[in-house]
Amino acid sequence: MAELSTQVQDLYVAYFGRPADYFGLQYWTKMAATPSGFAGMVQAFATSAEYQGMVSGMDNRALVDTVYEHLFGRAAETAGVDYWAGLLDSKVISIADVVTSVASGAQGLDNVVFQDKVQTAEIFTDHVDQANERLAYTGANANTLAHDYLAAIKDEASAAYALDPANIDALIAKISTVIYTAGMEEPVHLVGVQPG
Questions:
Q1: What is the SS3 string spanning the chain?
Q2: What integer pLDDT is reported at residue 181 of this predicted model?
C-alpha cells in the first residue's frame, strides 16, 4: 500500500504542486489498487476543478512550463517547451501524457528535486494527523500555503530545509491557525484569538 500512496503523492505534486490531503490520499490510494486505478487517477487529476482552475487561460507553452515548475522547481528549457507544446498543439498527446512522461523521464537534479518534493509531501500528509489539522488543510488558502512550501524545493539545500519535520510541523501549525468551515473560503477565527 505504501508504494501506491507514493504514486498518489507523485500525482498531487505533479498536478497540483502540493501534498495530498489526508482524505484525498486515502481515497486515491484505494482507487490506485483497482485494475484501471492509475489511468483513472491521471485522468481525474487532469480534469479536476483544482487543476483546471490552476491552468485556466494558459497556452500549451505555459502549461508545459507549469509541469516543470511543479516537478522540478524550475522553468522548462526551450527545447522541452517546444517539444511538448508542439505535441499538445497537434493533439497527439494530452496534458496527462506530458505530466506522466516528464515525471518518469526525470534525471539528475530534476529527479532528486522531484523525489524530495514527494518525500516532503509524504511527511507533510503523515503529520496532518489531528482532526483539526485535517479540517484546516482544505480549500484554496491552505493549498496555496502547502504549494508554496513545496515550490521552494529547488536543490538539495532547500530540500533539506523542507524535509525537516520541525519545519513541516510549523507549516501545519500555520495552516491550522485558521479553521475553514466546509465549503467556505472565509476564515472562522477562534474566539479570543487575534486573527493574523
A1: CHHHHHHHHHHHHHHHCCCCCHHHHHHHHHHHCCCCHHHHHHHHHHHCHHHHHHHCCCCHHHHHHHHHHHHHCCCCCHHHHHHHHHHHHCCCCCHHHHHHHHHHCCCHHHHHHHHHHHHHHHHHHHHCCCHHHHHHCCHHHHHHHHHHHHHCCCCHHHHHHHHCHHHHHHHHHHHHCCEECCCCCCEECCCCCCCC
A2: 43
